[in-house]
Design a protein that fits this description.
Length: about 325
């Protein structure tokens, strides 16, 4: 029998370490999600210590079945843990050593079970830090769900680039964060409340945010007119009337269009094309038809519109 060389012994040792680490992590993930589910810790460094992040990070260097990553976006820091075969994942969002979100999947043997935590008060601190010159009137005071709360401040420009558009080659269709934010608001908010928010944002200093607000208002107005005689909306005529723009609101939108203000877009197809357009171009009939078609496709066909909104309590 040949005597193993030093390199062969080292290889067997490394394989053994990887196997042991893989087995250990497959067993330990349930403990990690249990900690995430039950923790009351709100300081990032304290939670990472409990989760033994440094140890996981070191082990990920030796195992092909697990990995850790840290992303930084300004003062935001995202900690990710991924385990393969079977796939398990958690993510911790941090701002100035304060946890603003926790996500883990799966958290039990139940199919699609996941853990999601979001701390609005920390997200609001992020908003104030990233938007220091924004008027106080744009920091809404009434209660919102976590998803709506997060989407609203993303629309204002929190944790995102200010880009207007639908189809972005660099990020993929529907991957522009502010676009996803306005679609979330349209899908989840009471439509009358949505109209009030969008009217407020007509005065917002970022043109990209203004454009999403204008577009949403025009879509609500378009929806009210399109469905005026639709029998499905017979008992909801007050809603359709409330969504219709009045003369003053139309004048405000026309003034934004006529000003031809520069807007950063993500519709260009080559590096030679300008990444900017104007409010006049983007609010043309052709562009609005494209947007209305996309909204109709994304939300609900008219026959399912009210039924689906009733399901989510709106």
């Amino acid at each position: 029998m040949p005597i193993p060389t030093k390199n062969t012994l080292l290889l067997f040792l490394l394989i053994g370490m990887r196997s042991a680490l893989s087995a250990q992590e497959l067993l330990n993930f349930e403990k990690l999600t249990e900690i995430l589910t039950t923790t009351t810790v709100r300081q990032t460094d304290s939670l990472l210590h409990i989760l033994q992040w440094d140890s996981l990070d070191q082990q990920s260097q030796l195992s092909t079945l697990l990995g850790t990553r840290i992303y930084e976006r300004g003062e935001l820091r995202i900690y990710e843990y991924l385990q393969r075969n079977p796939q398990k994942y958690y993510q911790i969002g941090s701002f100035r050593n304060h946890i603003y979100s926790i996500y883990a999947y799966p958290v039990s043997h139940q199919k699609d079970a996941k853990l999601e935590r979001f701390y609005q008060e920390v997200w609001l601190k992020i908003a104030h830090a990233e938007l220091p010159n924004i008027e106080d009137k744009f920091f809404l005071k009434y209660t919102m769900s976590d998803e709506v709360f997060r989407a609203y401040y993303v629309l204002l420009g929190v944790d995102t680039e200010d880009i207007y558009g639908w189809d972005c080659e660099q990020e993929g269709f529907f991957q522009i964060r502010q676009r996803m934010a306005i679609l979330t608001l349209i899908s989840l908010l009471d439509l009358v409340d949505l109209k009030k928010i969008c009217l407020l944002l007509l005065d917002y200093p970022l043109m990209e945010t203004q454009m999403y607000a204008v577009e949403a208002l025009l879509y609500l107005d378009y929806t009210s007119k399109k469905n005026k005689g639709n029998p499905i909306f017979r008992d909801h005529r007050d809603l359709l009337k409330a969504l219709k723009l009045n003369r003053q609101e139309i004048r405000e939108i026309k003034a934004i269009k006529a000003a031809a203000c520069k807007v950063r877009t993500c519709t260009y197809r080559s590096t030679e094309s300008s990444p900017y357009s104007t409010t006049k171009e983007l609010l043309s009939k052709k562009e609005l038809r494209h947007s209305f078609h996309n909204y109709d496709s994304y939300i609900f066909p008219p026959k399912d519109f009210l039924k689906e909104r009733e399901k989510i309590g709106l």
